[in-house]
Amino acid sequence: MTPGGSSERSRNRRRMRGARIGTARSGSLPLCLVILLGSSCHMLHGQEVAPYLQGGERGQQVVLEGNRLVLTCPAGGSWPLQYRWTLNNTNVTDWTPQYRLSMPSLKRADAGSYQCMVRNRMGAVIHRRTEVHVAFMGNFSSGEQRKTATRGRAAIISPPPLASFPRPLVTWYKDGHKIIPNNRIAITLDNHLVVLATTAADAGRYHVEALNEMTGENVTSPAVYLSVSVGKKNRGSTDSLSDSSSQSCGWAGPKYPESEHVAPAIVIGPKNTTVVVGKEATLECIANARPVDGLALSWKRDGRRLAGGRRLIVPAATSSDAGLYVCEALVSNSTAKPVEARAYLTVMEPPSLTVQPKRKISADLDRNIEIPCQASGVPQPRIEWYKDAVPLSKLANARYKVSSATGLTVRRVQPGDGGIFQCFARSPAGETQAHTELLVSSVAPTLLSPPSDQTVTDGDTALFTCQNSGAPRPAVTWRKGSQVIASGSVQVPRFTLLQSGGLQIRPVSVQDSGEFTCIASNSEGTINATAALTVWSRTVISVPPDDQRVIKGTTAVLACNATHDPRISISFKWDRGGVAVLPSSGGRVSVRPGSLTISQTWSGDIGDYTCSVTSQAGNDSRSARLEVIELPHSPRSLTARLNDSDSRSVHLSWLRPFDGNSPLLYYVLELSENNSPWKVYLSEVDPAVSEVSVGGLTPARTYQFRLCAVNQVGRGQYSAETQRMMLREEAPSAPPNNIVASGRTNQSIMVQWQPPPESELNGVLRGYVLRYRLAGLPGDYQEKNISTPETNYCLLKDLIIWTQYQIQVAAYTGAGLGVYSRPVTEYTLQGVPTAPPQEVEVVAINSTTIRFTWNPPPQQFINGINQGYKLLVWPEQSPEEVRVVTITPDYPSSRHTGLVSGLRKFTWYYGSTLCFTTPGDGPRSAPTLLQTHEDTPGPVRHLSFTEILDTSLRVSWAEPLDKNGIITGYMLWWEAPSVKSSRVDRSLSNSTLQYQLTGLTSTTAYTIQVAARTGAGQGVVASATISTGVPPELPGAPSNLVISNISPRTAMLRFRPGADGKTAISRWIVEGQVVKEDGKEEAWRVVYQKDNEPDADTLEIPSLTPFTRYRFRMQQVNIVGSSPMSAPSRLIQTLQAAPDTHPSNLSLVSATQTSLRFSWKPLLESEFNSSPETVGYRLRVWRTDGDGEDRTEDVKGGFGTSEATIEGLSPWTHHQVQIQAFNSIGPGPWSQNVAARTAESAPSGPPANVTAEAVSSSRIMLTWAPLPEAQRNGVIIGYKVLYREKDSDGPPSVRVVEGDRNLTLLLGFLQKYTMYALQVLAYTRIGDGPPSGAVLLRTKEDVPGPPVRMMFPEVRLTSVRVVWQPPAFPNGIILGYQISYRLHSRDPLRWTTVEVGSNARQFTVTGLASEHTYVFRLTARTAVGWGEPQEALVVTTERRGKQHTAFSQSAVHITTRVDLPKLCVSVLDCVSNALRYQSSTK
Question: Cys-Cys with 1319: which of 197, 1282, 1407, 1466 at CB 3.0–4.6 Å?
C-alpha cells in the first residue's frame, strides 16, 4: 500500500463523521469469511466475473410491419449487468439493466442491424449482430405508361416502382389474360417482361400483380400500354401468314416467314455477380432474333460449354466457381453471326479467426503483453479492436499497438488496462469476433473516494461513494451491519451497486437509517470503509387547501397543515399568482399557521392561492382556487318584436349580462298577459343563447316580457320590461266545448255547446256556425249562422223522423271561422211503426198451440228501434179475450217465428201480429182465421148402473164435458178380475149413452170402463166396479182413527176401513175441525180427498195450518154414495212454522223530505203460525236508482201493528218498499214492491264545474254543470247567479236562469276591468241550495275614461304646466298619457302631441306663442287604446290676478278660473269671454 493512499485515508477519517476504514491481506481469515458469507462461489479469491456472451449465432429476423419486435441479449457475469442497444452502429438506448429490447409496433425505418453491448464493473463486451427485416407491401408509385416497340424487335416492359420486402412474386397480364412465359416471352429475375420478335398482335394493355408471400398482400399495377410500330425495313410490307404459334390464355405470338430474318441480339445481358461460398448463384441472359424458334442460347467458361438456356444456376458456389462466364446467342441454319455477352462471378469466403486469444490473460504491472488475433477469408478481412466495447481508435492510447501479423500489444501494463479486449474480423462476407479478459495483478485494493456520512430525506436517493483501484480490479461488497445488501452476486431491491463501486439507495426509507460498509477485495488484499446514513421523515402537506367558491361579502378560509420530522422546523407562506399574500392592516386578510382567512371577499380576491411549506426535509406546496361569486346582473337591451311568419310567437333578444363569476345556469323568462300579474313562462332558458322565440302565445292579447339570469348564487335582477305589444287576431284554434245534441221530437234536435277556451279564442268572439247533415251519407252540409256570441244553443227543426244526424259547431272571430268540433251524432226521436210485419203466416201446430212466421216491416217504416213483436190471438166468438205474446226481435234472421200456447182445443181463433217501438205499437197485420187441432176427449160424465140382475145390468153415462173434437163413438169394456180372459169390449156409436150388459155370472164382481172417442183417438177412461145379483149399498163408516207424524203442515191418519157396500171404494174423504184456544170449535170442513185407492188404510193429510189444534173424521164413498162419518180423532196441534203470507194492502200514508210512513193490513193471529208473543213485522226499503244499500227495520209492536215510519232518507228520492211478517221460527214471504218518493227539498249541493270567461270589458260568460241527481232533492226550477265586485261589502246582485237545462248565462253591464266574485246555486220550489265556491274573474280591459282634475297652475307667455289625476274609471292598467294642444284659431286637425309615462302627473308645454288661446286635450291609454279626452282652453298671458285661465269643454263645471269681466256660467260663455279678453289685451 502506497504512502499516498495512507495519507488520503487519514484525511477521509478527519473529514467523515464516524467513517471507519480497515485493510486486510488475502490471508486474513475473519474478513474472508464475512465476504464468503455474502458472495457466490466465483468470488472465493475476491474477484468478480466479467461479462460474457451466451447463445449462438444471432442470424436475422423478419417481422411484419406493425407487429411487435422483441430482441434479447443473452449474457452472464457479476451484477450489476447493464445493456445498451445500437441500430446500424447508432445508439438507440442508454445503459440500462434491461436485457430485452421491445418495440411494440415495428415501422419500415426500424429495419437494420441491431447489436447489444453488455457491461459490469469488470468490463464490457459487444454481442453478435442481428439483422431485422420488416416485411411490408407498398403500392405502385407511378401512373399509367405508354411504350412503343418496333415490329420484330424485343419489347422490354418494366414494372412500375414498388416498395416491398421481401421481393414480391409477380404475374403479368395482357388485356386481362395471364401471361405464361414461353420461348418468345420471358420474365426476368428483376420481374421485367420481355417480348421477343414483336408483332402487331403484341400491342395491348399490360399490367402486373405483385404478391408478398410474408404479408399475404397483393397489389395491381397501373396499366402499361404497348404499341408496335413498323420499322423502316418493314414499311409497306404486310404479314401474309396467319398466326400459328402456341397460345397462352388467349395471347399468341405469330410465326414469321423465313425471309423476314432478324439477326440475334442480346436483350438482357448477364450481370457481374458476387455470392458467398455455399450460396446459390444465378446468371441470366435473354436474346432476340427472328425466327425465335431457331434461336439458341448457351453458356461457356474458359471456352467450355456449360449449359443452354436463358439462366445458368450454380447451386452451391465454391471458390473454384469464380471466373468469367460467356452467354452466346445464335440462330440455327442462319448465316447471321452469333453474339455473346460476358459476366464475372465472384465467390467470397466469410472471415474466420485463425489465431484467437484465450478467454483470460494475466499480466504484471509494467510488463508488455500480447493479445493474438489473426483471420482469413475472401476478400481478406480487416481486424478491429475494442476495449470494453470502445474502439481502440477512440481511446488513442499510445501503449496499444495493433499489428496485422500478430494482433494487439499492450506495453507497460497499468492497472487501468484491466478489462475486456475484443477482436472483430470483418469483410463483405460477414464478421466474426473473439474476446479476452485482461487481468492485471500484484496491486492491492485502495479506496480513492471512501463513503461519507449522509443525511437524506425519506423518498430521496442516498448515494455512497466507494471508488477504488487495484489489480486485478477489486470486487466490491456493501453491508449494512452483518447483512450483505449489494455485491457482484447479491441484489436487494432498492440497493444498487454502481459501476464505480458506490452504493445507490432509491428510494430511501426511514428504516434504512444506520451504518453501511464498503468492502473492496482482490487477490492481493481487502479494504473497507464505513459511513452512517441518517433519514429524515419528509415534510408533506397533509391538509391541502381546497378549491372554494364563496359568495361576495362572506369569509373564505383556506386551510393548510403539514406533517414533518420533529428534528427539523418548518415555515409556511402563501402567495397568489407568484405574489406573496401578506396580512392586511385592517385585519381583512389574516395569515395564521395552518390557514389563510379573507373576510369581506370581493372580485379582487379571485385567484389561485398557493400554500408553500419549506424545511430541511423537503418542501411541498399545494394550490387552490378561490372564486368569489355574486348574483348575476340583469340582462341588457331586452327587445321584443313580432314574428312575421308566426302570429303566435314573439322574438326576444338581449345582451348577455355579467355572470357574477359563476357560470349562468339558465335564464328565467316572465311575461304579463293583458296586464295580468307576471308569471314564469320559460323556467330554464339555455344560458348560451342571447335570443329566443317565445311561442304558444294567444292571439289578440297584449304581452310584456322581462328576463333575469340565474347562477349558483341565485336569481339576479330582472331586466327592464319590454314595451307592451298586441298580437294579431286569428280565427279560433279550438272548437266550442261540450257539444251536446239531444232529440226533442221526432223531427227536431236541440244542440247546445259552450264557447271555446278563452286561451284559444284568439280574438273577440262574434258568433258560431252550426252545420249538419245525415250521418254516414255523402252530401252537403246545411249551415246555421248564430251571430250573437251569447247564444249557445240551436234547435234544428224539420228533420226526418228517427234519423241520425252528424252535427258540428265552429266559432268565429273577426279574423275568420275557427275549427269545427268533432262530429256528434244524434237521432230524432222515435215514432211508431207505420207498416205491419210482412208475409205473415199463422198455422195451428197442435190442439193448443199456434205458430206465427213473418218478416219484419221495411226498415224505413219502423221509425225507431224495433223493440219486438206482439202476437195477438182471440177466439172467433169472443174478440175481447185477446191473448198477447211478445217476441224479442231476432236481428240476425230475416224470418221470425213465434208460438202462442195454452189455447183451447179444437177452437176457432183469429191471429194477427204487429211491430212496436218505444213510443207505441204499429198497425196490425191482416187477421187470419184458423182452428186448433182436434184432440182426445175428456172422461165421460155420470157413469151409473141400473137394472142390476144376476146375469145382466145396465150402464149409463153422459157426453164428456171436454169433447176436444167431434165425438165419433164410445168404447165399453167389462171383465171379472178374478176370471182370466173374461174381458169383453164393445165399440158404440156417438149417439149411444147406455148399454145393457148380458151373459154375466151371478154374484160376481165386474170392472166396467167407458171412454169417448174422437178422430184424434180414445179419450180418458171412466171406471167402476159392481157385483151382479147383489145390488150395491152404502159403505160403512171407517173407525179407529189414529194421528201420528205431526208436522207444521201435515199429519199421518191411520184407520180401519168400514164395509165397502158390496162394491169398490172409489173415494176417501177426510174432514177436519179447528178448535180455538178458548175451546170454541169451528165447523167441520173437508181437508183431504183420495180417489181410486180402494184398499187404503193410511192417509197423509196435507195443507194443514201450522200451530193449529185439529181433530179429524172421515167417510168412504162407493158407487152408491157416501158412508156415515167416523168418530172424531183425538185433538192434536200442528207444529209452529214461519208465516205463510205477508201483510196486505201496504201503502204510503205520508212522506216528508227524509221519511216515509206506511200502513198495512195486519195478519190474523192464526196467520203467524206460532205463538203471538214472538211475532212481528219487518220493512225493507231501497233506492230505485240502486245507490246506497238496502235498509231493513223491525216494526215495534205486536201482530196488530198496522203503521210504521222509516227515517233518515234522502229528499226527493224514489224508493221501493216491502213488508214481511216473522216469528220465532223465521220470516215469512216479502210482499210486492210498493214505490214511494220522499218529499221535495232545497238542493243539498252547488252546481259543479263553474267556469267564467271574460267576453269583453263589460260582459262575462258563466257556465256550469248540472246538479248531480243525488243533490237535486226535487225538481230544479232554475239557477241563480250571484255576483259582486271583489271585496265589496254590499249584497251581491242576482240573475235568475229559469229551467234546469240552461247552464250558461252572459252577464252584461259590468264594470270594466273589475274583479268580480261569481257564484251559482240551484233552487227548487222549496228553496235555494248552497252557492258554489266563488270564481274570481276580471273583466277585460277597455279604453279608459278621461283624466280628472286637469289644472294649469302655471301659465306663462310661452309655456303652460298642466297637472292632472288618473281617470276615475281607468278601465285597465294605465300605460301612459297623451297631451295634445293646438291654437284655438287654427286647423282643428293640426295637433301637437306629447306622450308621457303612466306615472306622470304633470307636464310643461314650452315653445308656445304668447297672448294666444290654446286648446289642450289630455287622454289616457290602456293596452286596448286611447280613452276619452279631457279638453280645456288656455290663454298664454301673464295679465291675470290670482287665478289662471282654463276652460273645460268636456264638463259643465269650470276646472280653473280667470279674471274675466264677468263670471262665465256655461262653457260657451267661458269660450266667448276668453276670446273677448284676448282681443282686448291685444
Answer: 1282
